[in-house]
Fold:
Amino acid sequence: MKARYDFASDNTAGAAPEAVESWLAANTGFVSGYGTDPVVARAADLIRERLQADAEVRFLASGTAANALALAMLAQPHEAVLAHEHAHVCTDETGAPGFFGAGVGLIPLAGPSGKIEPAVLELALALPDVSYRQAPAALSLTQATEFGQVYAETELRRLIEPVKAAGLRVHLDGARLANAAAAGFDLAAISRLGVDALVMGGTKAGLPLSEALVIFDHSLTRRLDARLKHAGQLVSKARFLAAPWIGMLVSGAWSERSAHANAMASQLAERIQARTPYRLTHPVQANAVFVDMPEADLLRLRERGWFVYRFLDGSVRFMCSWATTAEAVEEIAEVLAV
Amino acid sequence: MKARYDFASDNTAGAAPEAVESWLAANTGFVSGYGTDPVVARAADLIRERLQADAEVRFLASGTAANALALAMLAQPHEAVLAHEHAHVCTDETGAPGFFGAGVGLIPLAGPSGKIEPAVLELALALPDVSYRQAPAALSLTQATEFGQVYAETELRRLIEPVKAAGLRVHLDGARLANAAAAGFDLAAISRLGVDALVMGGTKAGLPLSEALVIFDHSLTRRLDARLKHAGQLVSKARFLAAPWIGMLVSGAWSERSAHANAMASQLAERIQARTPYRLTHPVQANAVFVDMPEADLLRLRERGWFVYRFLDGSVRFMCSWATTAEAVEEIAEVLAV
Amino acid sequence: MKARYDFASDNTAGAAPEAVESWLAANTGFVSGYGTDPVVARAADLIRERLQADAEVRFLASGTAANALALAMLAQPHEAVLAHEHAHVCTDETGAPGFFGAGVGLIPLAGPSGKIEPAVLELALALPDVSYRQAPAALSLTQATEFGQVYAETELRRLIEPVKAAGLRVHLDGARLANAAAAGFDLAAISRLGVDALVMGGTKAGLPLSEALVIFDHSLTRRLDARLKHAGQLVSKARFLAAPWIGMLVSGAWSERSAHANAMASQLAERIQARTPYRLTHPVQANAVFVDMPEADLLRLRERGWFVYRFLDGSVRFMCSWATTAEAVEEIAEVLAV
Amino acid sequence: MKARYDFASDNTAGAAPEAVESWLAANTGFVSGYGTDPVVARAADLIRERLQADAEVRFLASGTAANALALAMLAQPHEAVLAHEHAHVCTDETGAPGFFGAGVGLIPLAGPSGKIEPAVLELALALPDVSYRQAPAALSLTQATEFGQVYAETELRRLIEPVKAAGLRVHLDGARLANAAAAGFDLAAISRLGVDALVMGGTKAGLPLSEALVIFDHSLTRRLDARLKHAGQLVSKARFLAAPWIGMLVSGAWSERSAHANAMASQLAERIQARTPYRLTHPVQANAVFVDMPEADLLRLRERGWFVYRFLDGSVRFMCSWATTAEAVEEIAEVLAV
Structure:
């Protein structure tokens, strides 16, 4: 029996055709190294255009590294970052912010479906500064959230405004920004809202492996390439991290293929609601479906070859990606329906 | 006029056909993430086979990161690493060992053409341990050296033996190990000599971007994947870092294409000696040619579109790669001959 | 009105006469620096004798530094330390373990009155090792706990045994070890139980400022003085950190004066129970009294000049020290009784 | 035979009477912790007054920590600090700047007798910023230098002006600032020259153990106490680090006793020149005497019980301190004269 990772995560898929095409196209001739070549410049231009913002753009192989490096730029080692308690930086990045930030702390905040509750944020901001605790210097947001929710611009503003008013900076983990964009989130809102650093996800959107680190505040970028190199995040043949973005952005595939992923999630959710006894634990707004499922049923699924995982809140998570097929949705719905 | 980076470095070339082919072949279906997939397993097996050693193998996007992470495993923060004063870790990695190692130090050693002089090493080992100085816990070697020299196994033994006897560990920066192998260096010697951690270069050998971190001493690898993740060096779609190794190793291209690079360097060296007034400053054993050249001549070369750089010892460096053509060698020899 | 810090903490007191005496006695003549002098050697001997253990002993000015440095010796940066959620290292040390340990993590565990619940610990130990989470490499215990509880040796054994069986190491924060000793805890149990690193508190026991870092496992101490120096924890005139220990240990004052502190806490607890409506929220076993008190009453206390603080669990904390007088206990009991 | 450390260093002496007196005077009653007490405030005021500058002042137990923490405030991890190749931060602090600064680098500069040569500094400043090298973000100066020289204000200006013009910051290691002040250096020059962070030495000037970290640029001090705590440098009973400054500064002993140390060095230098064959290798401007001495003679000295050390340039160093007596100078001169 073949192991099936179709719904295990959105990084179990390969690279989308548009990404492969421009990766191959970039593989010609000799170019200068370490991100100084025209392929990197073109990809960065396309990202600035897509975000409608003047910003520094770099390409990294790891989203964990991109997030952690961004946070290390926004908070001093003796300070902390506010983030949702279920945010990837808090739960799935092995303490990387503490490594990149020489001990920078994380302050977990609660809220439904991965969205930070404004009242909880305000309480955190109201805490007095004391020497024995790491006070927050930045807020980290995730769009779409770990539970597949898409913040409206007004919701983000309600979180960002008090944070900015208190003199903190803002980071946005956009590992699934393409899914949010496909769900209607206006990317121009990011700079409009005053986000200081964005990690714009490529890998989960269909690139082979690449995340764009986007810094809006130019005062933070002194010797940015040296910072990347020092932290092991500047590769010599950088064109191979940048090139796939060109195909994905010029063709529109970056968001369109994520629209497909979102549609597959909707379809799967419908099937589950129609044919199974399982309750959905979060609204389906992007490419994730969360299901309340007994352990026995999860094991049965595993026995049939399907790998999916119980998530932070106890739900079982089904992720769709650019590569998810309607057939696979049908197949797993059938297995679940038994 | 077109900018020519043919000889600027061996990372200005693209990816070799064999690497592209297996990269493309790996882009099918869904696989588990973070290095747990069969592509990664196969590539690791091929590397173990090529090195004739049982070792842990991981694939990283950056050689700087791979070196720095290895050194952080071999020395404590309050200790140091002995390395040639012109080694890449000392001169071209922006202090990355200090970042990955929380302040781990580097002790530069002298020696001709990038090779550490045994007598100099012995002096360093003889220094007393004192609390106010970072004492060495490891030796870092480079094969081939920054100046294109290939250590003989006996030469390496002469350096490694006293180091091991003193209780230190050994790291080998093999960014250009393929060139050394092509020049006759037996890769099985690495484990035979007791090297603890090797960075086996892929990028400069014709991969798109990938270095293999090879740990021979299994006592060092507790939670190695967590260590990588924590340091921002574990990518989700790891198959794309591993796959190119398969094509390169199965076909033999990893070393054969480096043999070509070496041959191009020899050819270029011959042309320079035959047709120009310039003196070669180091023997040509791998893929680099170093030339004693006045600044005016270097500028003239730049004006003709050719980018090459003055190196650490003042020589001008011409690097050949898997992609260097005989025509390009002829072209630049002509420009140099004028 | 004079500000009164008598019960604010046990570090608001000055230095005890026995500590001052031996501090003054050490201030004669010229001695070698950085901990190599006879005063340091003598103090270390006395500590080894008191602990009935062969161990490396160093003297640091800061307990936070001593704890963090110890944890950095017991866990790798990509690993974590298990500790009570209210332990000082978790709540009051500004993320210092993350700084000293290059991002080492903390895993908070629950349990009553600052004691770790064995079942909670076992759950944490049972979690699978995964690359995206910092797995525990050590357990940090506190004796007496933040809530003034004293673990019995059997209780400690029940926590340490499964931890040791799982291959983890053990740290003991003994900032108030003197109070525990005064309450009957046998110091010889520390090495008997297999604790790897102890921070033996001097400051809160009546020294001017000094904590003893005690490492039982000699395999951890390679170049320990260099490690201290590298981390800014090796002072030149080390005799002044070591000397007060001599007076305190030779005279027995280290534990006897803590017995006085404990007695004062008992007396205060009795007064509160006899004369006020307040409920004690934790048993009084060492030098702390915790009280359930409305905010208005706390403010009234503050207005009368008395500084005490609301603690992690919402209780108001009254700390006694070697310097607490029966008169002060009477005074505050009177204020509370109104 | 008694070991004699009189000339081994200026930290082999104990604490001066004025320091002891105010240390004892501070040991009364209960005060708030962690540097918030009136003793700390008073000592800080006295330092601001002495420096004629509005600055943040904190008291640390270790000069290495104070220097490293200051450098970590002035340079980012991917940047470096320019310093004399023989400066204490480069040669005697076990890589602490790399630890406190998460890999911050040091760039050693040459110059006679520990003074940086302006032309060498200018060369370093002229180097282009590249991603693969840690570019300088700060200059670290030492007054008096490791070789006992006292920079004139004009000399410092010649070094600081180009550095400030290039946008770098300035750190002054004043471990022996008292000796420089005693030799005529105007302390008000420090803020006048635009120094950003000063470590004002107490320990070598006769305090038991205390260095003042003085930050002139208030934009650097956000959450300074949390930064100190995070780095293990905020002690609870801070009054004991601050109090000795009060006695030393109010009485004038801080510089007057250093004037004595300087005078003893002059006297020793005279004796050596008059009665021995040894050449002085550096001018005697502060409290150090450096002598060109064969190994056999050094060993003979050691056999007679006198500990002195061969220094970085090969000279044998004799340090005088506040506690050096004319008798000891006579004694050692006699031994040397034989």
